[in-house]
User: Fold this.
Amino acid sequence: MKTDRQPTVHLPEPSYWPILLAFSVLLIATGLIFSWVISLVGIPLLLSTIVGWTLENRARSFAAEEIHE
Amino acid sequence: MTSMATPAHQKQTLAAKATLGVVLASETALFGTLVMSYLLLRTGQAGWPYMHPSISRLALPVLNTSVLLLSAAMSWQSDRAIQSGKAGQLKAGLALACLLGLLFIAGQTFEFTRSGMRPDDPAFGGVFFALMGFHALHVLAGMVVLGLNLLRAQLGDFDQDRHTAVDMGTWFWYYVTAVWLVLFAVLYLI
Assistant:
């Protein structure tokens, strides 16, 4: 049945943060096997990617809500 | 950004609750498996090769447990505060909950060093460290969530009607605390 107003679905937009986050986890795990120095590089990268991803989602979420309102 | 919760926002809240429920269910399966492995090894025929924790050794774990319970209380207080629109109390509560979580991790690290076990010990030490280590990782993850909520509170994202992320963070923190109470009973009291 066709209605006048089709429901819209808000999907996440493309982002580089997930792959950066995965890479930082890889660094931490690799450091556990080979050298803690590699983990030391991975930990700040992990935290910064989490913050970056959250702030990006926050901005997009507000923008999406304004469209839906 | 408006102050009233919109239908889109209510949908997001429902989705967040459902997602957290699935995550916590899978975490329960993980901890349940580890606890059963520990109990199996502890009560097995090979015998437990380490000293059973005595009352004198319980002081630090009890103190640590109190710190985590206090942290959960702070988290609860911060959630209640934002439900009444008190953003200042939210920030103070989240900051205190994070600090107490850090204190708990410091206590756990000290407990690791005096346990007499090593992570590379045969299965016995391995399962002890897996239990404690996975829980410590969950505490760290919870602290990241509380820290992010503190950052967002600082940016003015939360008010009386919009605080889903605070609710979810608080529930995750309750879960981490509840899991620790079970682990405390299993590792130190049984």
Observations:
- Chain B touches chain A at residues 1-2, 6-9, 12, 144, 148, 151-152, 155, 157 (CB under 8 Å).
- Chain B has five helices and no strands.
- Chain B has a mean pLDDT of 87.
